[in-house]
Amino acid sequence: MTMKNNELETKSELREASLFDKTVGRRSFLQYAGAGAAGIALVAAGCKKDRGYENPTMNGGATLDFKDDVGVLNYAYALEQLEAAFYIQVANSNTQFTGANAAAKKAYFQDIQFHEIAHREFFKAALSTNAIGSLEVDFSSIDFTSEASVLGAAMAFEDLGVAAYNGAGPRIKTGAYLLLAGKIVSVEARHAAYVRDMISNGSFADLNSLAPLGANNAGGLDGALTPDKVLAIAGKYVKTKINVINL
Amino acid sequence: MNIVNILEEIEKVDGEIYERLNPRRAAMKSFFNMGKKISLAAMPLALGSMFQKAYGQTTLPTAVVDVLNFALSLEYLEYHFYNHALLGTDVTFTYPTAAAKTAITTIRDHEKAHVDLLIGALGSSARAPIAYADTDFRAGGTFSAVYSDYGTFLAVAQGFEDTGVRAYKGQAGNLLGSPVLQTALQIHSVEARHASHIRQMRTAASNGTAVYKPWVSLGASGQANDSGVAAVDAVYAGEDLTVQANANIVGIGGNAGITKAAAVESFDEPLDKASVVTIANLFLRDGKKL
């Protein structure tokens, strides 16, 4: 992955700052390699890597710096890249949908593909030179010849996307960006409900099943997860190393 | 001394420490960032108690009270609309399948949960309850068949859900920096899930004569209202926006597949409070209007 200059600058600034302010190094560097990352371990890991840590972005990777809205938007951009890549691969794999709704499923998966591409391209345009690069995905756990596998993965992506936007909303400092996230998250929720209904009719808003993503059935509340938890789940589908700082 | 240890020690005697350290209070922000890492799993909070912890219920900001009472009014309307469809003695349509009735029950239960949640959050600031007798889901005759014709019932349901999604979105900015934003967003996306399913139910009920996408698309003649019901044009006014933050979504990034319809579908639009009130008032009797 090619890195943008501004990211390198950001990293350099951080390293410089850490020379004067040890806490910057201590609290940063939550590194997500694959699926594991627990909050408690992060603080300890950060302590060991004061100052002299190797800058992982130099070896290829993406850094999400949550110190401001750019980090949140790049986080959304990363997730939309992942979703778009998934639906593009579904289309390219010519996954065979079955049953009475087969034609509709094929058509709606194509709709969703274009929605996710639109989201991805929107964030890329909005972030301009602040955008992270293109993520390399890993869909080896998905069998694109199997309708069940594709539907299951689509549900996972959409439910996670909803929880990710809901959990990231409170981090957004600019009203216009919060609104844009709101414009997108409800479309993701519509996707999620549709895919769920295709798997099991009536499960469109099964909030009990969404409890692991932070949903609360008693309150009628959908999922909401902090970025570290979302990335830990999404990590399984991403080859590119994603570094999170200032969360 | 280690700040994390300090926070952990405080937490033992004061479980509210992380709530007290509101992340939006700049002075506490860096401390919070440290403490948060050990409290990630301990953060899910009931909205009511969250208010008490963050502010004390009596000092809820007026703007937040207004948003929550506005939301409460809409949730009352939705709840009564579905609850009556399940229990009303004057309801003459029959549900085509058990699954259809179960879905309406699920949605009714969520709306009730939202009502209860908002009442709990508002406490003594909660608006007066809206009773079924205060409502008129036939909208003065515009939807006279709402409880006798299943298709009409679903069409109005779609209008309610799509309005609800737009209404919450329109208020998000007023909750910027408020601890209730998270909860409002979690309600917002549940309403979108409802809308998606109701649209599928409408497609199924049409027996192949009509298709209502789970997402808001363009109408058959390219109009913003894709519901096929002209009487709810106000619900979809402005939903056909194709430019987001100065970026033209049609064909963005050289993707010819992103047609105008796809661009419209990709982003749901907010609706301002006055427009939502006008829609809601169609379903409230004189003297009970917002």
Distance between the termini of chain A: 23 Å
- Tell me how many strands of chain A there are: 3
Largest interface: A-B, 70 and 71 residues
Order of SSEs of chain B = HHHHHHHHHEEHH
Query: Any idea how many domains of chain A?
Result: 2
Average pLDDT level of chain B:
86
Beta-strand proportion of chain A: under 5%
Helix content of chain A: 55-70%
CATH topology annotation of the largest domain in chain A: Ferritin
Describe this structure in words.
The complex is a heterodimer of chains A (247) and B (290). Chain A has 247 residues and is mainly alpha-helical. Chain A has two domains: 61 residues, no CATH class; 168 residues, Ferritin (Up-down Bundle). In chain A, 56% of the residues lie in helices and 4% in strands. A three-stranded mixed beta sheet of chain A has the order 1-3-2. In chain A, helix 4 packs antiparallel against helix 5 and helix 6 runs antiparallel to helix 7. The two termini of chain A are 23 Å apart. With 290 residues, chain B is mostly helical. Chain B folds into two domains: 42 residues; 169 residues, Ferritin, core subunit, four-helix bundle (Ferritin, Up-down Bundle). Chain B contains eleven helices and two strands; from the N terminus they run αααααααααββαα. In chain B, a hairpin with a 2-residue loop joins strand 1 and strand 2. The longest helix of chain B has 26 residues. Chain B is globular and about 55 Å long. The N terminus of chain B is likely disordered. Classes of the chains: A mainly alpha (247), B mainly alpha (290). Chains A and B meet through helix 3, helix 5, helix 6 and helix 7 of A and helix 3, helix 6, helix 7, helix 8 and helix 10 of B.
